[in-house]
Amino acid sequence: MLLIKELNKDKVGDKITLAGWLRTKRDSKGGFSFLEINDGSTFTGIQVVADDNLDNYSDIKSLHTGASLKVSGKLVESPGAKQAYELQADNVVIYGNTDQSYLLQKGRINFETLRESAHLRCRTNSIGAVMRVRNVLSKATHDFFQSRHFLNLHTPIITASDCEGAGEMFQVTTLDLDKLPKTDLDKVDYKKDFFGKQTHLTVSGQLNGESYACGMGRIYTFGPTFRAENSNTSRHLSEFWMVEPEAAFFELKENADLARDYLKYCFKSVVENAEEDLKFFDQRIEKGIISKLELLSEAEFTRITYTEAVKILEKSSVKFEFPVKWGIDLQSEHERFLTEKVFKQPVIVTDYPKDIKAFYMKLNDDEKTVRAMDVLCPQIGEIIGGSQREENLDVLLARMKNLEIDPQDYSWYLDLRRYGSVPHSGFGLGFERLVQFCTGMSNIRDVIPFPRTPKNAKF
Amino acid sequence: MLLIKELNKDKVGDKITLAGWLRTKRDSKGGFSFLEINDGSTFTGIQVVADDNLDNYSDIKSLHTGASLKVSGKLVESPGAKQAYELQADNVVIYGNTDQSYLLQKGRINFETLRESAHLRCRTNSIGAVMRVRNVLSKATHDFFQSRHFLNLHTPIITASDCEGAGEMFQVTTLDLDKLPKTDLDKVDYKKDFFGKQTHLTVSGQLNGESYACGMGRIYTFGPTFRAENSNTSRHLSEFWMVEPEAAFFELKENADLARDYLKYCFKSVVENAEEDLKFFDQRIEKGIISKLELLSEAEFTRITYTEAVKILEKSSVKFEFPVKWGIDLQSEHERFLTEKVFKQPVIVTDYPKDIKAFYMKLNDDEKTVRAMDVLCPQIGEIIGGSQREENLDVLLARMKNLEIDPQDYSWYLDLRRYGSVPHSGFGLGFERLVQFCTGMSNIRDVIPFPRTPKNAKF
Known about the structure:
By secondary structure, the first copy, chain A, is of the alpha+beta class. The first copy, chain A, has helices spanning about 55-60, 110-115, 125-145, 205-215, 250-275, 275-285, 290-295, 305-315, 330-340, 395-400, 410-420, 430-440, and strands spanning about 15-30, 30-40, 45-50, 70-75, 85-95, 150, 160, 170-175, 200, 220-225, 240-250, 300-305, 345-355, 370-375, 380-390, 425-430. In chain A, helix 3 crosses helix 5 and helix 3 crosses helix 12.
């Protein structure tokens, strides 16, 4: 059996077999029907011509949108302009039909309704296209990092530590909540829990990634991470996938180079490998997205320091909602102004004030800023956040003391600085944000197969 | 900067820069030292020759195993037989040293002790080699399925359903366990929990995978799964990675072909891409592992039905601990006898009794067996389990009724059979078992970066 994706000129004239789902059917009075079949491998399906010489032609005529079938016949060049090939059926096996209760036969359906049927929505043009682009980006991620000799590392999902206190965490337990064991002080007795202590779902694999980078050189993670924030917005998921490379002997410059090269590789991959899907997004979701991605895959990615960025923003005549001064965290409006108005391309902002960044970022000689970097893109602002890590044990300990972080809680992490410490750097990218950027989809719930959000863990 | 992996004949004579960690040092009386440096990119490091013309030669002499450094110099062919190249240093930057408290300088350390320092153990020969092989297998997995047009699918980790009741699950919650909200009946009020109901960590992505296969054709997952079983053995992890492909229009035969091709591709990839690491495993961990993998990458993979397998076992003169008769679940001793003694190669056993298999497996016409398949390998027995899925709604409902499974709990899953149902199949592979098989490592805790087991979620 072939996939529609595998059809090409060489196969014209061959007898082939395809299988898929019926998208549309048009019955002609002349005793034949046009069936448009899609098998999920491409955006455009194939037109099948079935006529009344087929034994089961009357069954074929009774098929509804969404019916599943296998068709054998001759592949011919199509006389129509819409598609390159069509299939002249000489055998049609019907696997299953649908009925009036099938959601997806009633013309265009809005994304919100589709979300309620997340188990079926990949059968639509839009979500099918999104998931193919998502796959292209997943493949591009592995291909890119493997080609640069980064090892794919599987960092733990269940964790007993809280990386950088990056946000609300989900608790993981096997205790019977209706019969909780208690200590003498009437607190929950976590010694009796599965891991012998309180555990949570990870918010980042970075610290574990650093451990492997400081021994194997270059690693990247690509796995699920979690935030238990009660944010019911189109930008937040409770469960999402992150890409986190970490490299020994990379300083901030190499880290920024890596982030730029990775993003450009992704954009180029989508342009080259999801042409039909992108055309759909260009027409229906975001006008100009193809040329946007083409431009970005060749863009320079301007680099400026935070201090320079603040100066530019202060000098501009724009009245921002959040007033700008040195020390503030840049808001989305500032980030977009820099990328969209000033530089008209992605911008990598480096060396942020230490007070707005995490404890593990390397302190600069000015002792006011750290070697952080954010990669800002038009439309969405920050798409990547990263830094060179503090490799000096004493500096790191002083910083933790300042922030009242107990070194005991990070003793294994500090070992990486005690024994053969090396300069190293890394970054994190929220994979769904990247998929949104490459498809134009406005709600993050529509770019992950089964979204997890407050009050919703359906399917 | 180059990786040791990137060195080749063309670079002999070049001035290059490398960085890594000191594995051994030998000081000669003639005023020079041999430093063996490893950067994690390969098993064998590189020998650096540093002499007293270097400004910091006295510092170099004081370095301990595990120290980190960057070396620039000329790459030359090595006069020694041990390595192809060596580096004549004309500049050595010392990043960090170690001291007597560093675990990894005291000769060979057993795996149990290394596990206590999981954050450092990738710096050893053995665990470094394991993790490079693990990466080769991860890359092979993506490459294989992408080349067959399977889409990488990210199925949810947090779930409100329990696939096939496959085992004990971890609960996920944001409720404050010291102040649990209660219902009128004094039960925990899960309406107040984050997702508005009780949720757990997934044990398999299969059901979600089926949803996407029944629309997009071919998908594969590669993600973490969880078992809250209190099994403190060398074969069990609480958190492990699974590979689960699912394909529409695949019947059991195509499914078995896919499993065979995937495994052979993996074995071949390791042989071709981890030569040095395999040599180490062959010498130190499992004699003959290289020829084992070479043979298996060309093996036929015998296929027999469960009924045939039982007949062979019954006829054999071996006295098994678990007596064999039709209807029993095959035990490891039976599986190993079939692969090691009878067929001397992997065996795919199909069509198991329905009573020992899950509800979603397709019922055969005999109404006694289902289209299940287990792929058995020498030494380990089952490495893959899979099946063709029941696509007939009525048959599936009858089976669920028999097993007292409430169809309401699976209504979305049943929709896949209501609307355009198709024959489809898939399987699951425990990724760590595969890594064990390709390295010979006997304890599963040593083939995942940070193992999670009962009472242990360290790092």
